[in-house]
Structures are given as structure tokens and as C-alpha cells.
Amino acid sequence: MSFEPEIRIVGERVKVLEGRKTLFESKLPQVMKAIGRVTDRTTSSDILPEGIRLWRERGNAIAVGIELRPQRRTVRWLAEGSGASYGRRARYEDRFLAFPYIVLLIVFRDGELCGFQQLYYRTAPLRSGHEDLLLPNLYNVAQGYRQRCWLCLQMLEDKVRALPWPGKIDAVVDHVFSAAFNRSSEEHEGNSWWGSMRGLDPRVSSVEAWERASRENGLFPLEIPWKRAGTTATQELNHMLGLVVALPRLRHARDLMALMAGAGKC
Amino acid sequence: MQKLRRLQQEEPAPAGPGPQEPRSASASPVTPGVTFVWGSQCLTLEIQGMTVGDALRALREPYNVAPGVNALVNGRLADPEHRLSEGELLEFIRPAGEKGASE
Q: What are phi and psi of B68, to 5 degrees?
């Protein structure tokens, strides 16, 4: 007769029994992790959109990490002497600016933006997600809403739910570069990283200097001693995801029982 | 890129030295090509030798370039007849909104 193990969950422990004899025990969270490692995980998008480096799904939320390579772009920047900080009366100028690697960390809930979105810099591509992120020097990126580098995407609210995943990512990235940069965060969040980082290096001390340096050397942002953010892409995605969907606790038989009850009984 | 090549073949060839066939620079990393920026896209294509107008016609469909865009080369408005050189940056931009809260 073949061996038929019996698995029993008692509180936080999982016991493997043969008859009355306990063969070994493990902790429930360890068992759950082991099960997770051998279970197929599906993503909501068969083809990952371009630029996606990190992708996490939890409940009805999906957190993504997008990496944009160093590039020069023509962006619209609030003009010196603009009559307004933002809005219809604001005046903008085209600026040809070079950027280092940009890391966008965005959480979507039910396919829509939900206010948890950050922008950081890097001077090298991500390899694992555990490397230091750097603080940016942009208008409309600010400390606020329990995020170190919150990115203003207010004009995209309620506009990406119906888009397929590549369309959502395109819309966000396009908005970062195409929508004009202004002092809205100074007015609403009381700060922006443009204001905080102007003293960092003469080449980014003003938008004129930044454009001049960009025309001379498109890769100069990789040489700037950007300040460390003291966090990583993985840490921030976990933090943001945790603010949107709490990770279900799986430490006790009761937790597993509740999960199983929620999933339906057979 | 196959679609891009096909599109290019369907375009009537202009008089004089014709545009080269656009190819992804990843096929030949030694050649820098032309950096192409549109919306979320930023990639290097071997479109040097093409005019700005030719490039727009060839890239419009594969990259869903919107009608009425302005073409810039190295951050400055470009003539459609400008012939692209290696290392140049071709951008298509369109008037877009602004960041921040609405008034």
C-alpha cells in the first residue's frame, strides 16, 4: 500500500503525518510561499507593454515599474514671467532637455490610475529592482500623499480605464513628456523637486542652463550627482501597493480558512 | 518593422537620391541611426538619408503618429525636405495639455 501523507494545519503550523506519526512540521507562511513558487501566475496583459520592468498584481490592483532610457525631448516648460503658475493663463516655452533614466512607478486599481504614482531618476538601468533610486529635478513631481516623488497625473484621471495595457502605459509616458510642466505642485502640494534640486549642479540650475547642457551633450544627466532617494523600485512598489490593497495575512489556519471560504467551497 | 518596410515600398520614390529603407538599429548596433521620438516612443531607427516628410509618411501608421504633428530635428522646427543625418533626433510633437490641477 502506497504512502498517503496527511497534512494538518494547526494554528500557525502545518504538520505532515503518517498515521499518528508526525513526519515534519513547517510554518504556514513558508508553505504558502512554497505553493506560490510552483503555481502559475497570470498577468492581465499577455504582452507586457514596452518599457515595463516590474509588474505586480494584488487583488484588483496592478503595480508597474516603467524604465525610460536616457533621452532628449522637447517639452513645454513654464515660461519665466508667466502670468500664472498653471492653468489657462500660464505661458509656456519649448525646451529641448536631456533626461537620465526615468523610473515611473504606477499603481492601477481596476485598470485606472488611483493616485499612487511616482517618478524617480537613475543613472544606470535597473538590474534587479533593489538598486537605489535618485531624486528628480522636475516640476509636478513632489513630496505628498505618502509618496516621496509623487507624480501629478491629474489630467489623466478617469481616462485610462478602457485602454488596453500598452495604451495605459503609452498614455502615462506621453503625459509625462507632452503635458506642460508648471508650478501646480508648488501651489497644491507646497513643493516640487524642481524647486529643491536647482542648487545641485550648475548645468541644471536653470532651465536655460539645462537646455544648453542638453544641446552640448545629451548624456550629461548621467554625470549629475543626483541625490539618493533612500529607497528602491521594489520597496516603493510594495509600499504603494500596500496603500491600495492590504496584503492578506496568511499566518494562521484561520487566515487560510477565511481565504478558502472567500474562494468558494467544493 | 516588416510593416514599416512594406509601407516604405508602397510609398512612391521621390526624385533624386531615394530614402533608405528604415530598419531598426538593433539589427546593426554599430550604426547610430536617427533617434525617433513620438509620444511614449523613443527609439533609434536607420532612417538617415530620408527626408523628414518621407520619415513621417513611413512612420505614421506603424507608430500611430497623429495628424497635424510638428516635426522637430534636434529640438528645432524642421523643414519637410530636411534630409536626416546619422545622430540626429527627429521628434513629432503635437499641442498637448498641461500637468496639474484644473482651475
A: 80, 15
ipTM above 0.90, yes or no: no
CB atoms within 10 A of CB B16: 6
Residue A93's Cα: distance from chain center in Å?
29
Q: Which residues of B touch A174 (CB under 8 A)?
A: 39-40, 96
- Total number of domains constituting chain A: 1
Residue A186 CA: distances (Å) to CA of A97, A264, B102: 21, 50, 14
Three-point CA angle B54, B57, B60, nearest 5°: 140
CATH number for the segment(s) B2-93 = 3.10.20.30
Q: Which has the closest alpha carbon to A93: A76, A117, A116?
A: A76
Say whether A185 and B100 touch across the interface (CB within 8 A): yes
- What DSSP designation does A226 have? P
pLDDT tens figures, A250-264: 788 888 777 777 766
**Euclidean distance between CA atoms A52 and A49, whole angstroms:** 6
Show the domain range for A179.
Answer: 47-247
